[in-house]
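Reading a protein record of the kind used here takes only a little practice. The integers have meaning only within a learned vocabulary of local backbone shapes. With that in mind, consider the following protein and its fold in token form:
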Amino acid sequence: MAWKIPSSESDSLNKGAEEARFLVGDSLAWMYDGQKDSVLQVTKEAYASCNTTSPIEEYKDGNTKVEA
């Protein structure tokens, strides 16, 4: 599954996550340009409301791996 700005609801990250099965201990990895982008870890509530003002964690290294 790759991240990109979705062109439709069926192309969203939610749709991709529905198709994948993650287990405790799995890792999610993102490779990106750390000069232009970042990965934010947020609460479920913040995700649902698109609130990025107080992330749990912010990663800017360009090669982020987070354990699920």
Q: What stands out?
A: The mean pLDDT is 82. The chain has two helices and four strands. Strands lie at 27-31, 39-41, 57-59, 63-67.
